[in-house]
């Protein structure tokens, strides 16, 4: 695999869970768990990008590389664009956006999404998805859905249950009988040259409605390659309930 850099955007003022990067899990801040997982991947370098000095200070005991970035970025991708510029990366350098609220992210998925971008040189972004097997996830707006073309490229992302089964969804189903639905895994690979373009675009109308930053790339006609995850992806932390679930998992034998 070609060389890539893993970047962990860690915004302190999360609207749903303020101070999320420093939420305690198994005696450590959440972002430290994410950083350790990224270090276990094939990434040549792991950088945490935050908007708050408290995150910088919290990671000091681990010797993590941390950049203090602007506090007005509308998305994690915008924060990565600043990182790419400040590191002086060449246009063809690849960065993987590892979400700062994924303390259980398998390192194998970080490697997979980077490899997927190398496999499709005409794609601006590579990302991952996994089948949805339960109704609750399908109708949960915190679980982002994706529809893709035969080529594997994304057609659209939404918080709504897409595709819409016209007949079965006339009433909310109790079971899903096909594998037509995919949950998007918020792990992205980009080239630095694309990020330089992305930061100059204003958030698109669809991005504002769905609150999904990847829609900005589709709005401007750029391709997003979507691969099926090779290993199971434990859900990240969006809410207090998610945090409680992850804390319980991390307390179990082998949970670290």
UniProtKB/TrEMBL annotation:
One biological process term in Gene Ontology: lipopolysaccharide biosynthetic process
InterPro entries: Cytidylyl_trans, KdsB, Nucleotide-diphossugar_trans
Metabolic or biological pathway: Nucleotide-sugar biosynthesis; CMP-3-deoxy-D-manno-octulosonate biosynthesis; CMP-3-deoxy-D-manno-octulosonate from 3-deoxy-D-manno-octulosonate and CTP: step 1/1
Top-rank EC class of the record's enzyme: transferase
Subcellular location(s) per record: Cytoplasm; Membrane
Catalytic activity: 3-deoxy-alpha-D-manno-oct-2-ulosonate + CTP = CMP-3-deoxy-beta-D-manno-octulosonate + diphosphate
Gene that specifies this protein: kdsB
Enzyme Commission number(s) of this protein: 2.7.7.38
Principal cellular location given in the protein's record: cytoplasm
CDD domains registered for this protein in UniProt: CMP-KDO-Synthetase
Gene Ontology cellular-component terms listed: cytosol; membrane
Highest rank taxon of the organism: Bacteria
Pfam families in UniProt: CTP_transf_3
Family: Belongs to the KdsB family.
Listed SUPFAM superfamilies: Nucleotide-diphospho-sugar transferases (SSF53448)
Protein name (Swiss-Prot/TrEMBL): 3-deoxy-manno-octulosonate cytidylyltransferase
Keyword terms, alphabetized: Cytoplasm, Lipopolysaccharide biosynthesis, Nucleotidyltransferase, Transferase
GO terms for MF: 3-deoxy-manno-octulosonate cytidylyltransferase activity
Physiological role: Activates KDO (a required 8-carbon sugar) for incorporation into bacterial lipopolysaccharide in Gram-negative bacteria.
């Amino acid at each position: 695999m070609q060389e890539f850099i893993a970047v962990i955007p860690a915004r302190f003022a999360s609207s749903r869970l303020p101070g999320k990067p420093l939420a305690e899990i198994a005696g450590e801040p959440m972002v430290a768990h994410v950083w350790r997982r990224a270090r276990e991947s094939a990434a040549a370098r792991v950088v945490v990008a935050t908007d708050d000095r408290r995150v910088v200070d919290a990671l000091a005991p681990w010797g993590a590389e941390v950049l203090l970035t602007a506090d007005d970025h509308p998305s994690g991708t915008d924060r990565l664009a600043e990182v790419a510029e400040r590191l002086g990366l060449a246009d063809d350098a690849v960065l993987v956006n590892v979400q700062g609220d994924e303390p259980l992210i398998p390192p194998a998925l970080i490697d997979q999404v980077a490899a997927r971008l190398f496999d499709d040189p005409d794609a601006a972004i590579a990302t991952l998805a996994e089948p949805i097997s339960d109704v609750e996830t399908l109708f949960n707006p915190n679980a982002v859905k994706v529809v893709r073309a035969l080529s594997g490229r994304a057609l659209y992302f939404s918080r709504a249950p897409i595709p819409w089964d016209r007949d079965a969804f006339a009433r909310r189903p109790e079971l899903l009988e096909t594998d037509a639905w995919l949950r998007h895994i918020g792990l992205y690979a980009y080239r630095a040259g694309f990020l330089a373009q992305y930061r100059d675009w204003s958030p698109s109308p669809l991005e504002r409605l769905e609150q999904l930053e990847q829609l900005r790339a589709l709005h401007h006609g750029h391709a997003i390659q979507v691969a099926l995850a090779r290993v199971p992806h434990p859900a990240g932390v969006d809410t207090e309930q998610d945090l409680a679930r992850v804390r319980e998992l991390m307390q179990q034998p082998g949970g670290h």
